[in-house]
Each structure stands twice: as structure tokens, then as C-alpha cells.
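Ligand: 1,3-dihydroxyacetonephosphate. Inputs:
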Amino acid sequence: IPLKAELILEIRALKEEKNALILGHNYMEPALYTYVPDERGDSLELSRKAAGTDKPIIVFCGVKFMAETAKILNPSKKVLIPSLEAGCSLAESITAEDVRAIRALLPGVPIVTYVNTYADVKAESDYCCTSGNADRVVKALGGGTVVFLPDQYLASNVAEQLGRRILFLKKEDGGLSPTLYDREGKEAADVRDRSSWEGAVIGWGGRCEVHEKYTVDDVRRIRAQFPDVCVLAHPECPPEVVHEADFAGSTRAMIDYVESTEASRYLLLTECSMGDNIMAAHPEKKMLRLCSVRCPHMNQITLEQTRDALRYEQYEVFVDEQMRERALTAVERMLAL
Ligand code: 13P
Ligand code: SF4
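Predicted complex:
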């Protein structure tokens, strides 16, 4: 970290000069996370911070869908992302055309879309949600059928938490199949027979390329070696992995849990920089490392690129105005909750 001190001071000076706000997601690498952002947090917290700022420039140290959400909330501000390569496998898993096709297949069914999607997908949705409020958003809609896009594991975890049935849509060569599938991929309902799916949470096939890597075996092996370990999982992990954990929640909820409990050691089933960041803030906490599971997209955001983002005011995020207004409705409905 000392070797980076000059760079960090340069970023801080540029931030003052440009009157910018720097937001940093909990998955930023330790030197950046610890010394650079004005605000750190999960997707929900950072959306709120983005909505509340009066600074003319926002630098988003996170991935593209997060920076886009900041732009949706702040159309008159300059929103910058330090790298154009910071995507997300969930955001790539669904298009606006897919959402229109789902609405045509299931007219009248509310569509809740995870924040890990691009603005055009949000614009086609009724509600946005994050891992920090997905259960609350679905619950607030009552007990009727809900389409939940695009993370299949988050959809399953939310459905389970709320005691709801989970079914999945499938895209085939000719478009969306009228058949709905269960978690094992077996045919379970038909959209033409409403009684076969009424009241279910209906999901899509997206997955986080980081959280899908964790397995039940990983957890059991660690527990066999360290029976006193406290295991925390992000709800983007497969449901059977979440079952093995002691706690599941958003990145912020996991940090709060570790900070407020006294386990002899912790294992985080999430992007591995977050464990490093907790260790840096709390050297007294023992964090086990299972992984080198680094999100390749979050990994694109470096101190050098954050400095250049401020220095050259790059890379600016743009969202078409009509699309932005429609996406804003879904995001504001979430923030109102
Ligand atoms: P959080 O909203 O929990 O920070 O999650 C964002 C994310 O991308 C997790 O992979
Ligand atoms: Fe997307 Fe997964 Fe990376 Fe989060 S960790 S940004 S969900 S690929």
C-alpha cells in the first residue's frame, strides 16, 4: 500500500480540483477501497448515495450497470467509469428484447429486475431491486405471480425465503418457450394454463460467473477442517450453497454481520477482495480464504484508471433520455421501498 501513496494523493487532489464524488463498491481492491472512495457500499447504498449528491462529477469505482444506475438518477451530472471493460455476466444474460418477449408471454405479470442489468432492460421493467432488498420488493407486490430477472439463483433464494414456488422461462431457437421449468430443468407448467403457474416466482437463466463457482463440497471441506467457522454467502450463490451457510445477504449485510459478531473465523462465499477489505479494516478478525475468485469485471478498476478517469474526465456514461426516464421509474419504485 505505501508504494501506492503518491497515486492515492494524486487521486485525492484531482477529486478536490474537479469537485467530484467517488463511489466505491465493496469489491474494489484494498488499496483503492481503503483510501479512495468518499462512499463505499453495496449496490443499494451506492444508488442512494448517487441519488443524494450535489457534486457535478461522479466517478463510479464499480461495474458499468452501477455507473448507469448513477446516471439514471443524475441525468445532469457527469458520471464516469474508470474502465469500459467492467461488465457483468448477469447484465449480459438478458436483453431488452427478451424482457418485451416475456411481457408478451405473461401479460399483466409484474416484472422485477435485478439492478445487475443495463438501462435498456431496466426501462422495460416495472421494479428494480438489489440483493439488499430483493425479498422486500417481491413481498411488497403481494402473493401474485412475479417475473424476477435475470439471476436464477437469486430468484430461487428469494422464492424460497418467501415460501414461494420457483419456475423458469427458457429461450429456444424460435423464441420463448410456453413451457415453464422447475429448478432441475423438468417441465413443470405451461403459460397457456394459468392455474399451473399462478403465484409462482418466474425466473430467467442468468448467473453470476463468480458466485456460481461455489459448491456445497467447498463449504463442507472447510467445515470439516474448521468446525468453528462462520460461513456467509451472497444470495447470487446457488441455493444449496446458501443452505450450507450461517448467513446470506448483500455485500453490506455480510460486512455488518462480520463486524457485529465474534466468531473465531469467517468464510465469505463472495468475490474475494471483500474479505481482504474486511481484514484491512479489522486485523483482529480471522478470515479464511477459500478462493481466488476475483470478479474479472470489478478487477478492471484500478488506482491508475481512477486517476485517469478524473484527469481526463473519462469514460463518460450516457443513457438515452427516453430510456432513462423509463428506467428511472423502476429504480425510484425500488428506492421508495
Ligand atoms: P451487492 O449489491 O450485494 O453489493 O452485490 C453486487 C454484486 O455485483 C454482487 O456480485
Ligand atoms: Fe457481476 Fe458477479 Fe462480478 Fe457482481 S461479481 S459484477 S454479479 S460478474
